[in-house]
Amino acid sequence: MTALLQLSGIRAAHEGITVLHGVDLSVAAGQVVALLGPNGAGKTTTLRVAAGVHPAASGRLVMGGRDVTGVGPQDLARAGVCLIPEGRGIFPNLSVRDNLLMMTFTGRSREEIEEVAFARFPILAERASQAAGTLSGGEQQMLALARGLATDPAVLLLDELSMGLAPLVVANLYEQVAEIARQGVAVLVVEQFAAAVLGIADHAAVLVRGRIERQGRPDSGFRTDLSALYLGSP
Ligand code: ATP
């Protein structure tokens, strides 16, 4: 499959300390790629580099065959890259409807945005006038995804979707993510806890201390290696 988004040899630093030491990763349209790894491995930084929010110290970012290394977040967003950060990025004091309404900056009409959001997540229609902060954790994550979908993304970058949610809720969310990918979106998912996302991932990579230690299809061999890497073997 041709990569829609490709990171090659990405190095990145925080306050002079290198945290990514040459990350290679690619995601094709229609594919879900899981980026796994322990706390502090550099998963969020990788997503932030992919969204143009954090600069790469070296390496290349290519999207749709075009070199977009050094391109800023607004331009990458315009090119179809959508980052849904950990913590969901919704406005808790605004209603569900107003959270969606804000996305009309994309040029899409309110009706269109609501139609897409409510078709995928019918519960949001029921909760439309409720303050977003009063939704359950899973519903808040649905709202964050719905806001992301309003940008009509080509590439969706999801950070710790499962954070703080019950396993069944996470499984349902990932079914929706798989469905979004099936419609042609390239999805890169960061998770610390692997089980949830491996069920839907086409490809997975394990990042340990800023290096991809293993990548491939998330089959049983991969899962065995994954446990070893998490336990800190060489
Ligand atoms: P987590 O699951 O805890 O978010 P992660 O794998 O996403 O971990 P990153 O958040 O990318 O990892 O962090 C990678 C490294 O960079 C860590 O050592 C972290 O302490 C450091 N780091 C992250 N953000 C900053 C920052 N703003 N300033 C300084 N160091 C940072």
Automatic annotation (TrEMBL):
One of its GO terms (biological process) is L-amino acid transport. SMART domains: AAA. Signal peptide: none annotated. SUPFAM superfamilies: P-loop containing nucleoside triphosphate hydrolases (SSF52540). Residues 5-234 form the ABC transporter domain. GO terms for molecular function: ATP binding; ATP hydrolysis activity; branched-chain amino acid transmembrane transporter activity. Keywords: Amino-acid transport, ATP-binding, Nucleotide-binding, Transport. The keyword DNA-binding does not apply. PANTHER family: HIGH-AFFINITY BRANCHED-CHAIN AMINO ACID TRANSPORT ATP-BINDING PROTEIN LIVF. Belongs to the ABC transporter superfamily. This is ABC transporter ATP-binding protein. It comes from Streptomyces himalayensis subsp. aureolus. The lineage of its organism: Bacteria, Bacillati, Actinomycetota, Actinomycetes, Kitasatosporales.
